[in-house]
Design brief:
With 129 residues, the protein is an all-alpha fold. It is built from five helices and no strands. Helix 1 packs across helix 2 and helix 2 runs parallel beside helix 4. The longest helix is centred in the C-terminal third of the chain and has 32 residues. The radius of gyration is 17 Å and the shape is globular.
Length: 129
């Protein structure tokens, strides 16, 4: 039975959000100061996303959940890690592989910010904001 792409994205994104909430609650009960809980959670999700990408598991998750797997820091770190990992497998040196990851990350961030700014400008000009 093939699951609907929308259902897969919903289930995957929801599962990742539940994991984020669980990790956040775990850190709060561990006594980490409230000021740092979110930062530590984001770092943990980035580490999980990178480790899952290197082992090949995040690609399977993305195949099932599509864009649902790209939410949160785990998806972002996965994209960067994949670029670094592929460059390393192609025989590039460590510096070139890391630079490829940095470029991928900047492309994702800048593209997202530019798209958000363009949408905000359009909404402002049309009087919806």
């Amino acid at each position: 039975m093939k699951i609907n792409r929308y259902a897969g994205a919903f289930l995957t994104g929801g599962g990742i959000c539940v994991l984020c909430h669980f990790v956040t609650m775990l850190y709060r009960t561990a006594g980490i100061p409230e000021l740092f809980v979110i930062s530590v959670t984001v770092f943990t999700l980035a580490a999980i996303g990178s480790a899952a990408t290197i082992t090949g598991h995040y690609q399977k998750l993305t195949g099932f959940g599509g864009m649902g797997a790209m939410i949160t820091m785990g998806g972002f770190s996965s994209a960067i890690t994949e670029g670094v990992h592929e460059a390393w497998k192609e025989g590039r040196g460590a510096v070139r592989a890391l630079w490829r990851g940095v470029k991928d990350g900047l492309l994702i961030l800048c593209g997202g910010y530019l798209a958000a700014a363009a949408l905000a400008a359009v909404l402002y000009v049309t009087g919806r904001v």
